[in-house]
Amino acid sequence: MIASPRLAYPLHCARIKIMEDPDQDLIKHREIAFCSLHADPHQAETAMLFFSGLDGIVHLDLSGTHKLNVSYDIRLITLQLLEETLIELGFHLDNSLLSKLKRALYYYTEEVQRENCGYTKSQQHTRDVFINRYNRLQHGCRDSRPDYWRKYL
Questions:
Q1: What is the spatial order of strands in the sheet that 67-73 belongs to?
Q2: What is the SS3 assignment for 149?
Q3: What is the per-residue pLDDT across 46-65, written as a single tens digit (0 to 9) for each?
């Protein structure tokens, strides 16, 4: 049995542990906390129903009345995208100092991990692709006149 001077256990055991499941590091388990002062006291349940059919979501679970446990694949979706979607839909997240620090740390680590794996931001924001395509299409709502001529009459 070969023992590594830096490791307290044999080297062949370390190789087996690393090679068990390489994709397991890409599945993140996070907790999204909601503000308790919102008009909807069941924000976590509503968000769980919204996320239930989303690609990249592996597991959803409620932990309390204002907390949602989410497991997701960062190759397809990130915590930042999930929380921005919730905010855009009118949900109020917990904005305590500890929550803000956790969020910033999770956003940074997930962004770095995605870049190290070769995923770019353009793969993350597919909505922007459709918006840009719509803006480039020629359709009836384009007016070639300058703004001051459109308001003239």
A1: 27-33, 67-73, 57-62
A2: helix
A3: 889 888 878 889 999 999 88
**pTM exceeds 0.85 for this model:** no
Q: What are the structural domains, with CATH classification, of the chain?
A: 22-136 (3.30.70.100)
- The torsion region of residue 90 among left (phi > 0), alpha (psi -120 to 50) and beta comes to left
For residue 116, pLDDT beyond 60:
yes
Residue with tokens 């599945």: 27
Whether residue 117 contacts residue 26, with contact meaning beta carbons closer than 8 Å, is answered with yes
Cα-based angle 123, 84, 112 (whole degrees, multiple of 5): 50
DSSP 22: G
Residue 119 has which token pair?
Answer: 């995923």
Element containing residue 31 per DSSP (H, E)? strand 27-33
The token pair that represents 124 in the structure block: 């993350």
